[in-house]
GNAT family N-acetyltransferase (Streptomyces virens), 163 residues
Amino acid sequence: MTWTVAPEPYDSAVAAALWRAYYTEVSDRWYLLHEGRRTDPAELEREIAAVSGADLAPPRGLLLVARYADEPAGSAGVRLRDDGTAELTRVFLYEGVRGRGGAGLLVRAAEDAARASGARRMILDTRGDLVEARALYARLGYAETEPHNADPYAEHWFAKDLD
């Protein structure tokens, strides 16, 4: 089985399914940890619909989709800033394909795309309960930094020079 990574329109059916799976998982993890319950279905639908993903449209953004054995398997987004920095977001793999090298492949593809667009640095944020994500970023050379945003759910901020 092989991996491929390619740009995907942010508003495609594949992108929508990956966004739904990503948001459902991170939301449920937060609610289970903090309130002992899954996300309320009405809240889940409202929040999924509230974020169109248009910030991942070229030329200032990019959504990458990984496919495993030609089936959609995960995503990573890149947002370009005016200061030569790119932000990594929506890094996600379906549970059934985790542990097969796809996450690192997605992040490296996002770095390559950011670099090709002129970015010299990649930043990201994540939560404390997303321990797998934090381990991935550390393994790929990201260092924890001071906060670069005021996202109420962000607890860890990372950066990596792309030069």
